[in-house]
Amino acid sequence: MADSVPVRCPTCRRENAFTPPTFPCACGAPLTLPVLRGGVPVEILHRTWEASWVDVRCEVCGRQDAWPAPESGCACGTVVRVPVTPTPTAPLPSELPGAAPTTARPPASAPVPPARPRPATGPPPQRPAFRPVTIRTARDCITAAAQYLKWLGFTDVARAQERTAAGVDLRGSGVVAQVDPTTRATTLREIECVWLNGLVDSAVAVFFSLAGYARDARSRADELHVPLFVMDLTGTPQPVNDAADELITQGARPPG
Q: Which residues pair with 30 in a beta bridge?
């Protein structure tokens, strides 16, 4: 597992622990994004596909590919892009003449770093490691959110047959969820809409956003106890409020 590095939020100046994501290279070796220690994180205000990918070279086979740029969410709602070490141009030891071939190991599961300290509300349910879905399209965002809810214990969650005017994308026993895959911050109205849908269905209402939340939306979610998650392009949701922390700790509650 990769070591965590401190990332300071440019908005509230809070220092968060961030664990660089690990992906499987085409050669089969685990590739951990080389976060630049001491680098200055940049707040994500507007997303572009070009800026959302970084070129990283596999230290085992020398292959250079584009991978989702590492992102970190802060408790204040700010999402930053974490800088990575520039790809070296010198040949790797495995590429030198006469070097012995390297046997690649099976890929390691990408770790799931917490965006902030979680409240101590009891031991969390035993779960396997979450396997994220890399986000390249808006549909991938919904798929990643569905996989995460299933990982939390909402095993029957599925995409809504028809997206309602209120914007519910996922439904399951005891849960409704909305996913915002746009490049703008999620608004207060969207938070209130998913909360109302939760009231109607007597279910927990959850929100996933790719670009983060407006300040009034975040405050309203805290008042209504709506779990908020931000998603990076690796497909790993990260909690941004106490309600989300509690949902992770408790998981899906049995009916009754």
A: 24
